[in-house]
TrEMBL record, chains A, B, C, D, E, F:
Transmembrane segments: none annotated. Its EC number is 4.6.1.17. Pathway: Cofactor biosynthesis; molybdopterin biosynthesis. This is Cyclic pyranopterin monophosphate synthase. The lineage of its organism: Bacteria, Bacillati, Bacillota, Bacilli, Bacillales. SUPFAM superfamilies: Molybdenum cofactor biosynthesis protein C, MoaC (SSF55040). NCBIfam families: moaC, PRK09364.1. Catalyzes the conversion of (8S)-3',8-cyclo-7,8-dihydroguanosine 5'-triphosphate to cyclic pyranopterin monophosphate (cPMP). Homohexamer; trimer of dimers. The active site is at D128.
Length: 161, 161, 161, 161, 161, 161
């Protein structure tokens, strides 16, 4: 006769069941930044980077990454996003590109991961397009600014500075 | 007769030609971190997170993201990676999980983006699996530690702090 | 103090918000064609192309591309398609394979892009499988025949010729 | 004048229309197994396999494959899964790892393919991680245990021994 | 005893063996176009399209599609591309955007499909971003302009007018 | 001062380094099967399955899965395949469709996983296209028949019956 040994599933991964969650409008906004040197700042602003217009490409990268989040983050639920918007602003002392990703959906789970992944992919794209000039760029800190919708309620990050 | 207007391609994106670059062994190591609260630290270490063993899943996410980098970063060249290794260490005051990604290939371009993307995906996965406990986690700073191989030579980040 | 410069977002890309749009049944039909020489026409019809049965493979390629449209077209919203059908007919003077893609969904946005992408992928697959015989094949014109559903109403392309 | 020849579409593939199907909760459970030798059994249980903790990685692979099913199976409808769970148990005479995949969704089609694909990907991952020890491992039989929900009703596989 | 029936593989698809082909530098250039009305022409040129800067996004879409070609075209061999460049020019009577995709690799197979797929994806992206203004845009004809490298020799399309 | 705790990496996953392995021609052949009832056998052979010609679609699915293997199997190295061939034969007592996948590459690692994944995807596609007729189909056993090339030498499965 066979001896069967059940494996204790403690600590094992699963994509948790969300079929009971209501489908509602949810939004999330996440931020990151890329610290660059003056040469890179000027090359981005003057659009002289050899690989192309950095911010245009970073924006597309962020939007596509938002749509692809559940393929990048293993336990993340797939969601049909209804809107994604990536915006940039420069801080110049030191030179730091701030990236904000805003994601919206109507679905059973929140879109925090989509916003964080979009911001990260945009920042990584900036690094890629400028790394021939300097490899010392620093990405982040990356964090969630706020979310709305869902049973757990809204979240607003306390301003730090 | 048709009037043709050539669009000035200044600033437009391209995947730059690397067919003249030699295929050599190249490595890159990148780091990031996730700042967590004590509750999350304990849940990860004791493997009591509901979604599963956080570090195991983050490691797989990082390796798969490394292989998928040229699909996430638009102007990044596709490369057949020969090895990827993700390691973790904890700092406990404050609670901070340090993530290091090491990538190796034999090819015509460097693997800095693969290492940075792997580290970022691992960190995002940690956030995803623990966000039910606290949404205030902070990812990064994320940066390149070192690279070897290629015509531009080796790079070693100066220690800071 | 930091100087902050907001980047004017004029012209920057975003995936526009569709969370207010109603989820209704929508269809779209798009057409393209591949102009081939007599040798290729006979090879396709007699199923003697070395790479396999061209139309079978083109059909599968079109269906899979329809499902993958939001990964190919950056600002296109992801949608769960409910049906895809690709049909072929031959015109023989000159030899031209007409490809029609019909896509249906129940969702908040139309499926024009899914139909156009499916038709294009099917045509590209025909080119790929026959290019050893002749590289002079011409794909298209490619256009939308009609769409139904959605607030903007139905669309029917005026017959031309 | 053009001669047009309609291709008989008998036998040609399509993704059949499901827009009339109701969106309801659906579940499916599928099973497979991997027959291994004693050396591999011990290496998995003692976590001494060079490529890492086999079951952790197989579990992640299964969950990601479930989410990716409509990209692997051409005529399979895309679905937003609400939960995926992969479990393992050992039989030791002979050594056989049993893998069960449970998938849940709220949608218009069943999730049988997602459960079967998840189980298969998990088994293939076990093979990959252990093949340096022995290439004689056997995967399967792979089959559906049960499904619930949908118009076609529930299905329960008759126990076979 | 079992009766075995071999299926005649005539007409069945395969990805043909290229392991004997030499790895050499290969290039391909493909063209397509999008016929638009005056309103769309002005909106693209003045960057007033609601979804963003059309040509920037189309360019990124084309480059990413080039890298993804072997996932879109079933029998197409995967290749590590070494360079991709997408350029645009306007014809204004009628209004027609010409799109040219140039692809380069060092590998065992040509890159005709990558160039054709890149041009097609760029054109589809233009359609997607402008379709709110007019759904009557026409894509193509799409064709190969030239290729270099490989045993089959160079190809140059005869100019047609 | 920070207390640093290194995590013991025993059992953790990595994609092992293969940069020292020689790039040589490698082949692998894997088999699986699908046990079906008489109704399904007849529907496949007579091409009356509603979703289309089952074997044509299964063949395309297998080839595309072979190319996608390193995205499905987490620790599997990416490889540029040079050829994939999927063949079928019927056994009719009981009704069983035998599927064989043959994969070839010139690269640093073997293609066992690509062959096993191709065979599995083809079998899953058969199940998907016929499951409206009967959900009791059984896939497998799935195993490696043989491999050639690479330092570990050739492998030939002992015939079992």
């Amino acid at each position: 006769m066979n001896r069967l040994t059940h494996i204790n599933d403690q600590g094992r991964a699963k994509m948790v069941d969300v079929s009971d969650k209501e489908s509602t409008v949810r939004t999330a906004q996440a931020s990151t930044s890329v610290e660059v040197n003056e040469e890179i700042y000027k090359a981005i602003v003057n659009q002289t980077v050899k690989k192309g217009d950095v911010l245009s490409v970073a924006q597309v990268a962020g939007i596509m990454a938002a749509k692809n989040t559940s393929q990048i983050i293993p336990m993340c639920h797939p969601l049909a996003l209804s809107g994604v918007d990536i915006t940039f602003r420069w801080e110049t002392s030191p030179y730091r590109l701030h990236i904000t990703a805003f994601v919206k959906t109507k679905g059973p789970t929140g879109v925090e991961m989509e916003a964080l992944t979009a911001a990260s992919a945009a920042a990584l794209t900036v690094y890629d397009m400028c790394k021939a000039l300097d490899k010392g760029m620093v990405i982040g800190p990356t964090y969630l600014n706020k979310k709305t919708g869902g049973k757990s309620g809204d979240y607003l990050r306390e301003e730090q500075e």
